[in-house]
Amino acid sequence: MTEPLKHECGIVMIRLLKPLEYYQKKYGSWQYGLNKLYLLMEKQHNRGQEGAGLAVVKLDSPPGSEFIFRERATGSSAISEIFANVYQNFEKVPADKLNDPEYASLNLPFAGELFLGHLRYSTTGKSGLSYVHPFLRRNNWRSRNITLAGNFNMTNVDELFQDLLEEGQHPRNFADTFVLLESLGHGLDREVQFQYDKLSKEKGLKGNALNDAIAENLDVHFMLSKASAHWDGGFTIGGLIGCGDGFVYRDPWGIRPAFYYHDDEIVVVASERPVIQTALNRDVEDIKELQPGQAIIIKKNGAIQFSQIQEPKKNIAPCSFERIYFSRGSDADIYKERKELGKLLLPQILKAIDSDIRNTVFSFIPNTAEVAFFGMTEAFNKHMNDVKLRKITQKGSSINEEELERILSMRVRTEKVVIKDIKLRTFIAQDSGRDDLAAHVYDITYDSVKPYEDNLVVIDDSIVRGTTLKQSIIKMLDRAHPKKIIVVSSSPQIRYPDCYGIDMSRMSEFAAFRAAIELLKERGMESLVDDVYKKSVAQKNKPKEEIINYVKEIYAPFTDEDISVKMAEMLTPPGTKAEVELVFQSIENLHKACPKNNGDWYFSGNYPTPGGNRMVNTAFINYVEGIERR
Question: Is 203 part of any domain?
């Protein structure tokens, strides 16, 4: 992607199912859990580079000693920083004690059995250490402590906030993370109080016996189902409870991803499948996906439960952007899907180059479009083989050696035309200076294109704002003097804002939307904008379940090709000599390539949750009123 998007975060939860002595003996270190946490977080570094945090819970720390430990940091090097701070606690410990798991468990911080890691990208504009997960809710009762980390965006924070007020609470922050923490914390308080009353009155338990009994009987399912009854959004949320229970819970629409593995030594849950495969050296079939509305719950005694917290919704919609761009391409299925996205573009590209493969060079925009490029070239190689076979068959036995050699020499010409040169720092304050720097992030391989003869096809995984295309990519490609530049997107036109964790929230950001507005102006249909605005305002205060996405009407008068042509016109820099065309994946082919991830609201406007329609309604009203905010 030429303009990297901030997007949903990454989480890791680990539960060691054996005593620390076991890992010291088998793996040579009781720090086995910490080491695996580090590896799993580093392997998901792509999911968040604004901050990172971890939390550790000890199962059997005696009264008077700490049992929850947390470390957080901001910045792109946050993972290294938090683990450096953790391991710094062990530097001055004598070797004999450091290698003694019993001593470590009793005396050293972070020597625990439950681990929760988080990588953060802010999609709401809020930053700083106070917004870095895991969040921690403290209490003097072990079972009332909870630390929380998640990959989520809620669309109805105002409603959830009001629920807390009606319960008599006084939340200190309006952000969804704080609201969810207090919501879960309140559910936990109620469950602990219920167990306390029951066990102390009916069985007369006190002290440690009472605490142990509460932990044993704690109903995490009840806590999660009670707290999440009205949640609207995409989420995968992990939590550690002070008594030793842990959980990861996925939203009932299946929007955000979660994968898990467990054996008799360890339970691991992460946002991506291949990171678990790599960290634990497991085969793809060993890693399972948490189902929509399902939670994996690990009790203090190590018992693993799979609990259906909320029933899966009818309109299950796993995020397709996970497959196109966000998740690591090393996942076996994602790799195949990205190749298929490239293959399915063959007919449209053939049309754009007028089937002139001989005079066309194929390339890609680094680095995430590379796999789609492989799929595209595979499709063209197969097409070329079919062409060769047809020509040879037509000639039959009359073909001579020269003709045969000419036919067999026909090939698909691929080059690495585009180079991502360096990551330039925008230390220059003036906008003009920053634009000049941005124009040089990418560079070109010279002499890879025959000037004024070749078409140049360059594939990207998506086009959102189009800013980099206009300021850098097309200018740079034009320096190679191709006859025609075809920029291909392996995803459809992005037309609508996301509200489930991707930083695409303003209508004015989308090149497709700007193109539609320009077309309305050109065709004397500007009144449609006012009509949609009035409809949107009229339903502004309705319950989210009653709101309709009228923004679809902005695009309704135009074909996909109309929008593509106008986008190409708007994104072509002045002075460009080559003809420029944009080619987009169809939504139909997106679903063919990624059949299990049909969440396409940013392309289609079909939001899976009621809160999605409310968010797009608000985004359009903000656009018309000139309000530039998320």
Answer: yes
Enumerate residue ranges in the chain where pLDDT < 70. 1-8, 122-127, 421-441, 629-630
Q: Is 330 exposed, middle or buried (0-12, 13-18, 19+ CB in 10 A)?
A: middle
| Beta bridge partner(s), residue 350 | none
- The residues, ordered by sequence, that sit 6+ positions from 420 with a Cβ below 8 Å of its Cβ are 366, 367, 441, 442
Q: Which residue is listed with tokens 């953790």? A: 86
**Domain check: are 336 and 241 in the same one?**
no
Dihedral angle of Cα 515, 516, 517, 522, to the nearest 10 degrees: 90
Residues 6+ away with beta carbon under 8 Å from 268: 12, 13, 14, 36, 40, 260, 261, 262, 276, 279, 280
68-74 sheet: strands from edge to edge: 68-74, 51-57, 114-120, 10-16, 266-270, 259-262, 288-289
Say yes or no: 340 and 197 in one domain: no
Q: Could you report how far apart the first and last alpha carbons of the chain are, in Å?
A: 21
Q: What is the CATH number of the domain that holds 471?
A: 3.40.50.2020
Is position 244 within any domain?
Answer: yes
Scan for tokens 């303009």, then name that residue: 3
* CATH code, 285: 3.60.20.10
Question: Can you tell me the distance from the alpha carbon of 492 to that of 489, in angstroms, rounded to the nearest whole number?
Answer: 7
For residues 98, 103, 106, 110, the Cα torsion angle rounded to the nearest 10 degrees is: 20
Rounded to 5 degrees, φ, ψ at 43 are -70, -15
Closest CA to 9 of 40, 72, 51: 51
277 and 189 part of one domain: yes
Query: Can you tell me the distance from the alpha carbon of 70 to that of 136, in angstroms, rounded to the nearest whole number?
Result: 8
Q: Classify the C-alpha dihedral 492-5-332-15 as positive or negative.
A: negative
The reply to whether 375 falls in a domain is yes
Q: Which two tokens stand for residue 210?
A: 């009472």
- DSSP secondary structure code for residue 224 in this structure: H
- 326 and 307 in one domain? no
Asked whether residue 261 falls in the same domain as residue 365, the answer is no
- Of the candidates 410, 116, 401, the one whose C-alpha atom is nearest the C-alpha of residue 268 is 116
The residue from 296, 316, 336 where one domain ends is: 316
Residues 265, 339: one domain?
Answer: no
How far is residue 371's CA from residue 329's CA, in Å, rounded to a whole number? 8
Instruction: Give the model's pLDDT for residue 86.
Output: 98
Burial label, 103 (beta-carbon count in 10 A; 0-12, 13-18, 19+) = middle
The whole-number pLDDT of residue 328 equals 84
What is residue 84's three-state secondary structure? helix
Determine, yes or no, domain membership for 5: no
Contact by Cβ (8 Å): 308, 252: no
Choose the final residue of a domain: 316, 345, 363. Answer: 316
Q: 334 and 215 in one domain?
A: no
pTM for this model (two decimals): 0.92
Secondary element (H or E) of residue 306: strand 304-308
Tell me how many domains the chain contains.
2
Domain residue limits at 603: 322-624
Cβ pair 137, 187 in contact under 8 A: no
Q: Are residues 296 and 336 in the same domain?
A: no
Give pLDDT, residue 125: 53
Alpha-carbon gap, residue 116 to 132, rounded angstroms: 13
CB 489 within 8 A of CB 461: yes
Among the listed residues 214, 254, 240, 259, the one whose alpha carbon sits nearest the alpha carbon of residue 298: 240
